[in-house]
Amino acid sequence: MTRRPVDVRTGRTERPGGTERRPGRPVAPWVRTRLRTAPGAAVAFGVLVLITAFLMAVLPRAVDAYESEGLRRDIGGAPPGATVLGLSAPQPGLEIPRSAREEAMRPAALSAVHRKVLASLPAPVRADAAESAYGVRTSEALTGTDTWLPRPDGIGPRFTLAAQSELAAHAAVRGGRLPAAGGRVTAETKEVEAAATTATARVMRLRVGSVIRLSGPTGSTALSVRITGIVEPRRPQGSYWSAEPVLRTPGLAVLPSAPPQYRWEAGLLLAPGAAPALLGTQAMPERYWRLAPDTTGLAAQDTPALLREVTSLESGPGLLRMREIAGGTAVLSTGLETVLGSHLAARAAITRIVTVAAFGIGAVAAVVLAMAGALVAARRAGELALLRSRGGSLRGIGGRLLAETAVIALPAAGAGLLLALLAVDEARLLPAVWGASGVALLACAALPVRAVLLHRRPRAHDDRDDLVRARPGRRRTVAELTLLALAVASVVALRRRGASGSGDLLVSAAPVLVSLIAALVLVRLYPLPLRWAARPAARLRGAIGFLSLARAGRSSATGALPLLALLIALTTAAFGGSVLAGVADARDRAALLAVGADARVSTEGEATALPANAERAVRNTAGVEEVTAVRIEWTAELAPDTNRTGAGAGAGADARKPLTLIGVEPGSYSRLARQLDLGAFPAGVLKDTGGVLNAVASPGVAARLGTAPRRIASPAGEITVRITAVRPRTPAAPRSEFLLVDRAGLEHTGPTTLLATGEALDARALRAAALGAGPELDVRLRSEERAALTGSPLQSGAERIYAAAVAAGAAYAVIALVLSLLQSAPERSTLLARLRTMGLTRRQGRQLLGLEALPQALLAAGGGILVGWATIRLLAPGIDLARLAVAAAPALAPVQDVSLRTDMWSLALPAAGVVALAGAVAAGQAWWAGRRGSITELRAGDTR
Q: How far apart (Å, rounded) are the C-alpha atoms in residues 809 and 466?
């Protein structure tokens, strides 16, 4: 039985007489046949698409996740007084009957307003009802007149009275009972019950049954308060207690006098029903409703709306709604908009830096996917050329190739998206879908587009297409010049305004564009050294050198694609490594400037001398290598007889400005300053010269005092100093202006601070030693300050993304190198087999393949190092890493101008890995070809 002829152009069966009929179901479908022909390549392509889709989908979800967590952490970690929404209304006016005024102050009326306020909050503003509170408080504190109350400078303490709701739910009774309103309290009531916290009772000498007589501004007794209970806050750091900290913990207030005087300020908690009694005082009682923010469910996308609604509640339509509920004179105040503004500023700065890493990962992933399509198109060039020459249309060939790749790419991209959704919760879905869809689209289109471009015209044979013979056309030249202009514009823009300014996508793509230009330039220059090296190699006796150079020159002119992938991957890895290294250095420096040494032991406020055995106890602690004792006087000033006019005389208000006087032992302190690189100086500059102490000063103090001898007064005694050296910083006071002298020249030489150094300090042992020397000693460690700088989710999330960028860049560099070597692997195997039939040994075969791969590997490695270094140097002035480095604790981090620095490990290791991998692949291919044998490789017509 014979088959009827088939028209190869249409695929239809010819009938006798020239008629045709439509074919039935194909015997061997195209897609299934192609997948069965190369299952390993299909699986590898699917894995590549899955990993890339996962990365592109998980990246925006990871950004969303850490930004949302950062928002919740910033609001929850801020002081409650700065985030609580405080709605307050003054006492009802005197024109209202007294009974109505009293009813407005009672718990029932306040509770009704509280419920309405909670219900009227606009989304996404939500209140934590458990930590919210309402009541009546005195806006003007009352003074305690009893003589048994503590009076630091003979000044009576002041008390804030608050009739706050739900006290029983937020405090545990440690003594007595909770206060109660006996009978019906009115404005005429002169004695009420109150509770005090344990801290207030301890400081103010209160116990159950104590009666405190309080007076108003006129001095007459306004109210008597009987203490009925001592309570312990259940959550002292919560908004209920910390929105007004004086209710929880008393504090010393400094009065504006000379010399400074102090008085205690404390709070007492009345029964909610006793609030009308405050109307009979002159303490200006006010009603308040404190709404603690609820961060549960807040997402990063809610930040603009949250800021807008909070602003509206303070001074907009939202405030009008609140006044309809709480009264026409109600006001709402909060510091939440400041917290949100700081969060938005930090997030914007960090996001712009992260975008640079995202562009790098996306670009190298796109190039690698395009390389995968190009590899398949090159391996199947003969098959596609045959189909084209037999009448196959570009649409038909492209459609079949699209279907072939879509069967693999679409499920793999879907699986990658699913893994991203499972890996990161609480993030938007749409950006992840867009990322995975982009990967699927590129993976599906890479092979068809490449094949269609190569086979626009039927080709009878393959022309020589190598780097040495390639001549760039006009279109390529115009395209390269356009890319060069874009790269230059982006770099100039980044250097001028920085990535932390109002940057755009062009600025974020600067490293990728620089890598692209470098790849194009290197591809143009690559043939030159090959030509120069081929001539002397041809005169050598051995053939290995000449053959390897000839083979390197015969590589495809499309080699710009793998080189571009390698350069982008290496640049991304170098850029990410430099970011991480710069951030680590900045945090180390910030922690050092916060402490001044590896550990700092001092009295409270460094105001009194340390116990006599403190230095010995710290020195004997495990891990401590050296201890330097210093005396710090923060309130030193120019002596009165030196308050004269003239240059450097410190006349007027400048003369009364306090100085930070530091007394040190010159030898040990100079060693410490040199070891820490904080204003090192020779010990001899502090030598005493005839009653005048030589001093080292900061620039500000030096400009203020001049070089003439000056008289300085401090609690350590009066001294005469002459400034002999100027240093910007010093370990004892690394964040302030200072005057450094020999401690032996002071009247009181007892040290107030110990600065300890050691590679492995034991924090627990050091604190135990300090506690044994004195219970009031404060211990601060550089390692703990360093850890405090890494607590922000914004920082940690951005660092994880940069670490992923380094790893992904290295991984894609490996994939790009393997794909470029696999593209020419069959041809190299065939060449090696032919040469072996002519007497080439296995050792020479390994040398040939290794030397052939060496030029392109060296080009990629050297170019990657050069481009990475140049990119960092070009972009460093425009990128400030301060937000990323020290956003978690800006008060502890005075480091300024944190910028990129070159990290040699990030430059050298990936580049060395490229060269080593190229050599390993070449050696592996030579070994495998030796196992297969020459006969297998030289079978006619076999295109494996």
A: 28
Burial 710-741 (b: 16+ CB within 10 A, else e): bebbbebeebbbbbbebbebbbbbbebbbbbb
DSSP symbol at 11: -
Q: Are 748 and 609 in contact (CB under 8 A)?
A: yes
The 8-class DSSP code of residue 649 comes to S
Q: What are the tens digits of pLDDT across the range 84-125?
A: 999 999 998 888 888 899 899 999 999 999 999 999 999 899
Residue 700, C-beta contacts closer than 8 angstroms, at least 6 positions apart: 737
The single residue listed with the structure tokens 């306040």 is: 110
Give the pair of three-digit tokens for residue 881.
């890493």
Q: List per-block mean pLDDT (blocks of 10 residues) for the chain, which spans 944 residues.
A: 48 50 56 76 90 93 91 89 92 87 91 94 91 92 90 89 92 92 85 94 92 83 89 92 92 77 91 91 91 90 92 92 91 91 84 83 88 82 80 83 90 94 89 94 90 74 55 73 78 65 64 79 74 68 67 58 79 81 83 88 82 87 89 82 45 65 91 90 82 89 88 86 90 88 88 89 86 81 83 82 82 80 71 73 72 76 84 74 66 58 80 81 71 59 48
Residues 6+ apart with CB under 8 A from 518: 567, 863, 866, 867, 870
Rounded-to-integer distance, Cα 778 and Cα 602, Å: 5
Question: Three-state SS across 422-474?
Answer: HHCCCCCCHHHHHHHHHHHHHHHHHHHHHHHHHCCCCCCCCCCCECCCCCCCH
Strands 158-164 and 85-90: unpaired
**In this structure, are residues 704 and 602 in contact, taking their beta carbons and an 8 Å threshold?**
no
Which residues contact residue 533 at a Cβ distance below 8 angstroms, ignoring those fewer than 6 apart? 549
Whose structure tokens read 């560099």?
A: 813
Phi and psi at 328, nearest 5°, equal -70, -15
Helix ranges (DSSP H) in 143-299: 167-170, 198-204, 239-242
What is the C-alpha to C-alpha distance for residues 516 and 359, in angstroms, rounded to an integer? 13
- Helix crossing, 394-423 with 39-77: angle to 10°? 40
How far apart CA 588 and CA 457 sit, in angstroms, is: 63
Tokens 């399509």 sit at which residue? 373
Token digits of residue 431: 């950006």
Q: Could you read off the pLDDT of 753-781 as tens digits, one per residue?
A: 999 998 888 888 888 888 888 777 888 89
* CA 809 – CA 815 distance, rounded (Å): 10
Counting every residue, how long is the chain? 944
User: In the Cβ-directed half-sphere of 783, how many Cα atoms lie within 13 Å?
Assistant: 10
